[in-house]
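REQUEST FORM: STRUCTURE PREDICTION
Request ID: SP-0412
Submitted by: Lab K.M.
Chain count: 1
Length (residues): 129
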Amino acid sequence: MLHQEGFFGKPMDEGHLQLSLIESCYLMNCGVLKIEKRNHEILDFAQFSEIATSIESDFMIKYDVYEKLRNSGLVPKTGFKFGTHFRVYKSFDLTSHSDYLVHAISHDHIFSLQQVSRRSGLPTVLKKK
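STATUS: Completed
RESULT:
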């Protein structure tokens, strides 16, 4: 249901769904999903985001962007193969091409000229904003 109705995760074999850390955290924060440790202790948002940040140092920056995109009706999926954080769809129709590429950065991030060139050139070639 999470994948069919909200395009969360990636369907795996035998009815399993693989969720990213960001998707898991978002669903947990929305009250849809409970996440627990191996000892069955249920994690809250702060505990889970601390663990996720130890795995991905920029987790909270990416999570904030993901949450804003989802809450505005857009569908963010991983943009890894495009060298960015998210590819974003305007609708739940993932059979079409994504509309945007989004890279989450802190508000005080300083770009090098190479980064500006790379970030502005790729979306144009891929016909994305």
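NOTES: The chain has five helices and five strands.
Reviewed by: T.R.
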